[in-house]
Model the fold of this input.
Amino acid sequence: MLTCCTWLAGAQQLDCRFTQARTIQASGKVIRSEGVISFLAPDQLTMTYTQPAGEYLVISGPMLRTNSQGQQLSIDTSTNARFRNLRNTLLNCITGNCETAARDNDADLTVSEKNGVKTVEMKARKAAPRGYSRIIMEYKKDLPVRMVLEEFGGISTEYLFTY
Done:
């Protein structure tokens, strides 16, 4: 079995800043955002956006709440497969549970390391109407420093984490 990071096995929380660049492939438009991310084991994740102010994504157990572009959603991911995949992918990537993220996304997994940065790449085995075609995670000193989520629909979202 391939071992990735699973760095949070003993840690209980993570707090850092993030920048986000969301690229829409069809138009080339890039939407930039930033904020603060907090994780508390085992399944509490909050992304609070400072730009644009007021937006957020909150995972609390099976619940996922979001405010994006003025639209608020509250979803029980135990009954919604699409949002359950988003919830689980975010939690597993942030905590370094790459094997689980790859399995959940039916993806092949490769791991490499160069200059102290561990890169984990997950590529979907087949196309799907929704979900991620490719996920890239970079970890330095076992902390996530970069996450790229490429969707089948042509949207790529890159997060950079600073501590």
